[in-house]
Specification:
This protein has helices at about 1-35, 40-45, 50-70, 80-90, 105-115, 160-165, 185-190; strands at about 95-100, 125, 135, 145, 155, 175-180, 180-185, 195-200. The protein is α+β, with helices and mostly antiparallel strands.
Length: about 200
């Protein structure tokens, strides 16, 4: 009797093992052929119409970003902000001259306002047939300068508020604005009773 039960249990265990093994093999085979993910080749062939346009646009953007990062060049967001940062850095290090590039009309007008009040010396515009350069002579009087981004609107009635928020004192430094009459400091804009947009400051 014991031998009978032993052989019966062994036979039942062997049949169960074969059953689960074949079921696992069958379902694996079934899911592989009917629910498998598409390969890259099949996905590319299935893209039509707008999907191909989206794919090509994305590939062009990624390729352009990789080229930009590999070349080590980045787009300069604000030319004026970069120029004023270079001037302030050179002044802190005690330099007598600073080279600004690229050049722009806004930078030249801003430097003219600074030169008018004696915060910088003479400056020379160099035409290199590219973006241009400006060599600025420093006189050691400038403490700090910078650009205000974005360029907020500043009517004539708010000159005092902007000056008190940006400048260390009422009688020290200037806020530079771009107006319909040109680029000027806030004192001149008050005299002409005209408002504009805030470009930056220096003191």
């Amino acid at each position: 009797v014991l031998c009978f039960f032993f052989y019966f249990f062994y036979f039942f265990f062997f049949l169960s093992f074969l059953f689960f093994f074949y079921m696992f093999f069958f379902f694996s085979f079934f899911f592989f052929f009917f629910f498998k993910q598409k390969t890259a080749y099949e996905m590319l062939r299935s893209l039509v119409g707008s999907e191909m346009c989206i794919r090509d646009r994305y590939q062009r953007r990624v390729r352009g970003l990789c080229t930009l990062l590999s070349s080590g060049k980045m787009v300069m967001m604000s030319v004026l902000s970069s120029a004023l940062r270079d001037i302030a850095s050179a002044e802190r290090r005690g330099k007598r001259q600073v080279l600004l590039r690229p050049s722009s009309k806004v930078i030249v007008k801003f430097l003219q306002v600074m030169q008018k009040h004696g915060y910088i010396g003479e400056f020379e515009i160099i035409d290199d047939h590219r973006a241009g350069k400006i060599v600025v002579n420093l006189n050691g009087r400038l403490n700090k300068c910078g650009a205000i981004c974005p360029r907020f609107d500043c009517p004539a009635s708010e000159f005092e508020k902007w000056a008190s928020n940006i400048l260390p004192s009422r009688q020290f430094g200037f806020v530079v604005l771009t107006t319909s009459l040109g680029i000027m400091d806030h004192e001149e804009a008050r005299e002409r009773n005209t408002g504009g947009k805030v470009l930056g400051f220096f003191y």
